[in-house]
Every structure is written in C-alpha cells, then in structure tokens.
C-alpha cells in the first residue's frame, strides 16, 4: 500500500464520536492547556504539527490540528540554517506572531531558541515573557529535563504554560555529536524517567519525547499524568508531532527515519514553477483574460 499521498480532504476534520475531542470536536474557541489535560483523561490521541508562517498555519488550523508548534526547526526548515542552534529569539518571535495571526483555534506553542534560557530561570522567564507578550502564543517549549526543571517551575509559577522536551534535544547537537537515539540502556532509561518526572513536577503541561525506544516512551506515558508528545518515540505516546515540511514532503534531502510523508508538496510546487516558467517563455502567459485595456 502506498502512503495516502494527495488524499487530503478539502474540508475540515471528519466529526469525532466525542464532540469534545481535540481533533474532530465541535468547539471553535482556541484550544487551552486544560483541553490538553482532559484529552489524556479520555485517552484521546492528538496530532501536533510545526508551522512557521501564517498561511501554512491557517491551513493546519482549518484542518483541525489542535496544537501547532513554532519549532526552532524553523532554523533548518524555514530559514536555511544547518541546525537549530543559530536561530534567534527575534526570529522566533516574528515567526510565532505570524502563526498566531494565521490561526483561530489551534493552541500555538513557541520554542525558546538555544541561548535564550540556558543561563537559568531568570533568563528563561525574560525570554518567555517577551515571547508571550509580543506574539500571543499560548505556551512556550524549552529543552531539558532535570537540568531545566527550575526554569520550568519559575515560568509556570509566573503564569506561562510550558511544554517540556526530553530525550534527543537537538539544541545539544554539538555535545551529542549528532542526533542519536536516547534512553538506550538501563542508566539512560532511568535518567529519561527522572527527566520526565522532573518536568511534570516543575509544572509542565506536556512533554515531547524525541527519539527514544518505544517501550521506554510507553512506560513514561503510563507513569506521567501529563501527556507525552512523541517524535520517533513509538505509538504509545498520548500525542504525536512531526515537522510539517517532513510530513508534507517539502523538506529537501534526507529526513529522519520516523517521518511518514503524506504529500509531495515540493514536487507540486516545483512543477507549478516550471509550468509557469514555460508559459512565460512560450508566450502562453499572460493571456487575454489576465490583461487590462
Ligand atoms: N526536517 C527536520 N525534521 C526534524 O524532525 C527535525 C529537524 N528537521 N530539525 C530539528 C530536529 C533534529 N531532529 C533529528 C535530526 C536527525 C535525526 C536522525 O537522523 N536520526 C537517525 C537515528 C539515529 C540513530 O539511529 O541513532 C535516523 O535515521 O532517523 C533525528 C532527529 C528532529 N528535528
Ligand atoms: C521536532 C519538534 C518536536 C521540535 O522541537 C521542532 O520542530 O523544533
């Protein structure tokens, strides 16, 4: 069987059995962290996608995606950097404001980029405050378990909703020497469990588990009362996230093994550009109906 390429519906999501459902429910107001907590109680799985601009975000909002992440993957998937390390808070603020403007219902979560929270809780609060004040984002995300717990606690006590991110934390690419699978072996698995509990105790409303063995992600999902959002972390997580350009086939070059590609947007866009170019070169565009007299 082939992937469901180009079979996306033009309408919104198909109605869910439960009208409170995060995906397919009837509510049109903006999704909140309380809705996210309630979904875990119901055992409802939910989808998250990244978005970096208003138009793409509005398409995902119309499709019913309940949570959009302005990921620092904007660095390599939107701004042309090689890794997520160089993207700045100014850049993330600009992209996040655009995503908020493009959406009506989705909860918008904004990544704090590398270097804007690692100094400690005070720096984290300063960066997160700027993010929520200047963009209207509903929550921020930052990387790290035990090492970021004090910052997560200060942010949540100050009134800012925090999504945590543990396992493979791509801002540490230099220290990791790449993007290896995390939590393999007893010692590393025990550390991942400590990290998960630390971010929950610090007040995080959800936690991304990136590139960890499915069995370990399932255990974390069982022991936590906040939802786990998996990426390369198996099917047992409460939610899943993918980088939109990977999901839609827009990323050029190699993508991680956990990606499933649901469309071929890069090909569609490239073919459209070629068809336009040929019309211009051949004189077929503009035609009479595109002209003014
Ligand atoms: N386009 C894109 N997609 C992503 O998911 C993504 C980004 N960019 N940029 C930021 C981080 C970096 N991420 C990555 C990057 C590489 C791998 C990767 O190549 N992993 C190997 C597994 C390595 C191993 O077996 O130890 C793979 O083959 O998937 C995984 C996640 C996830 N994020
Ligand atoms: C891969 C996801 C979880 C992320 O953090 C990002 O897109 O930056």
From TrEMBL:
Cofactor, how bound (note): Binds 1 Mg(2+) ion per subunit.
The organism's place on the tree of life at top rank: Bacteria
Top class in the EC scheme: transferase
Region (Disordered): 1-23
Keywords: Cytoplasm, Magnesium, Metal-binding, Pantothenate biosynthesis, Transferase
Transmembrane parts of this sequence: none
EC code: 2.1.2.11
Pathway: Cofactor biosynthesis; (R)-pantothenate biosynthesis; (R)-pantoate from 3-methyl-2-oxobutanoate: step 1/2
One Pfam family of this chain: Pantoate_transf
Chain positions recorded as Mg(2+) binding sites: 72, 111, 143
Magnesium keyword on record: yes
Biased composition (Polar residues): 1-10
Cofactor(s) this protein cannot do without: Mg(2+)
Major subcellular site: cytoplasm
Reaction equations catalysed: (6R)-5,10-methylene-5,6,7,8-tetrahydrofolate + 3-methyl-2-oxobutanoate + H2O = 2-dehydropantoate + (6S)-5,6,7,8-tetrahydrofolate
NCBIfam families the record matches: panB, PRK00311.1
HAMAP family assigned: PanB
Function description: Catalyzes the reversible reaction in which hydroxymethyl group from 5,10-methylenetetrahydrofolate is transferred onto alpha-ketoisovalerate to form ketopantoate.
PANTHER family: 3-METHYL-2-OXOBUTANOATE HYDROXYMETHYLTRANSFERASE
Sequence similarity: Belongs to the PanB family.
Subunit structure: Homodecamer; pentamer of dimers.
Full protein name: 3-methyl-2-oxobutanoate hydroxymethyltransferase
Organism this protein belongs to: Streptomyces thermolineatus
């Amino acid at each position: 069987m082939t992937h469901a390429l180009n079979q996306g519906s033009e309408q919104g999501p198909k109605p869910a059995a439960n009208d409170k459902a995060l995906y397919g429910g009837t509510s049109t107001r903006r999704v909140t962290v309380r809705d996210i907590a309630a979904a875990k109680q119901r055992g409802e799985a939910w989808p998250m996608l990244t978005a970096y601009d208003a138009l793409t975000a509005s398409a995902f909002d119309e499709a019913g995606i309940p949570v959009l992440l302005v990921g620092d993957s904007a660095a390599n998937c939107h701004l042309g950097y090689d890794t997520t390390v160089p993207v700045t808070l100014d850049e993330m603020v600009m992209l996040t404001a655009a995503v908020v403007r493009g959406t009506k219902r989705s909860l918008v979560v904004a990544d704090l980029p590398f270097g804007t929270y690692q100094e400690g809780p005070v720096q984290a609060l300063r960066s997160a405050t700027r993010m929520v004040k200047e963009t209207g984002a509903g929550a921020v995300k930052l990387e790290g378990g035990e090492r970021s717990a004090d910052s997560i606690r200060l942010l949540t006590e100050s009134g800012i909703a925090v999504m945590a991110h543990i396992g493979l934390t791509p801002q540490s690419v230099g220290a990791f020497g790449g993007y290896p699978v995390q939590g393999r072996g007893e010692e590393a698995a025990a550390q991942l469990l400590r990290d998960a509990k630390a971010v929950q105790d610090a007040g995080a409303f959800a936690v991304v588990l990136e590139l960890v063995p499915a069995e370990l992600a399932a255990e974390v999902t069982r022991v936590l009362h906040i939802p786990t959002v998996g990426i390369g972390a198996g099917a047992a997580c409460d939610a899943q996230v993918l980088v939109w350009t990977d999901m839609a086939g827009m990323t050029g070059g190699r993508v991680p093994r956990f990606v499933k590609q649901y469309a071929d947007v890069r090909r569609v866009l490239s073919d459209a550009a070629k068809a336009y170019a040929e019309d211009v070169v051949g004189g077929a565009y503009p035609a009479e109906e595109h002209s003014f007299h």
